[in-house]
Amino acid sequence: MAPTFANGYALLIGVTENQVAGWALPDVAKDITALAEVLQHPQRCAYPASQVRVITGPAATRAGITDGLDWLAERLAADGSGNATAVIYYSGHGWRDDEATPPAYYLIPYDVREATLRARALRAADFAAGIAALHPRRLLVLLDCCHAAGMGVKGAAPATGFLSAAIPAQLMLAGEKGLVAAGSKGLERLAQGTGRAALSSSQGSQPSYIRRDRRMSIFTYHLIEALTGHAQPAAGATEVLVSDVMGHVWRRVPQSARAEYDADQQPDSQVSGDFPVALLLGGQGVGKGLAAPDPLAPPAAAAPGGDQIRATGPVATHGSAVNTGRGVAFVGNGNTVITGQVGGDVRVEAKTQ
Prior knowledge:
alpha/beta
């Protein structure tokens, strides 16, 4: 039986529609779909499907979002292992009210009204308070929410008195200063694999850009890259660390925004500790000498018939690759029996009969 990231839980929120028609974000649906697939796929992050909740469309109301946090809190409380990992992802508008003192940040849910925006939007501080009430061993918050008007940017112009703005990563980790003991420099927490981290797609009023091919946002694409082994994990790694994700996204997003739009987009992050956030390619890792898979290509279906594939004729030249259902095996000439686990992206030893 394939391994799972058994104590992993994810809440994915995408405000794809809006009762104010001009504020709808249909491209967000692509981000949510792609991330949900990679988190749940047994050959990728391997989260149990029942432990991933997706909130989009008319369900992404203010109450729907807070209910999602309640669902996550209940699942974490019921976990009982003391070893839970939670991922919260939000893609939608992030707006800043500069008329408030100090300026206030808001998430813009489906059911807002332009005339009563301050009363009906979800204050980022309240969202952060809901997150602070969660008590997993490990927590990663991902925000893709600076969506302004313009070519290649997810979104529409903000309401009067508001500016499109990234939600500061540190706002999501308010009150976490005590997480790392004074003088420890984080080493104890690193060793224990615990902590909290927040990653925002951009800083200040920088937009969050969509890839030129319109497949998804630049931020989400590089996030999925990191989750599928493109972050240069340590040799032999079978899990994706939050440091892998942070480092890869922090480096690659600005490069892509500059290359595709000649624009600035620099992610913002806040981290306390390092910890695994998912299995790496279903727990198989990236085999020595093999490249990580295309993050946009779905894994092949698992091969039928258990853990052995029997080739009945010439299969491939020695040293070349053949698809074994979830990944790549190296085989020889002739009638070849490929043994070992063939349900993962792994190098499989082969012998010729």
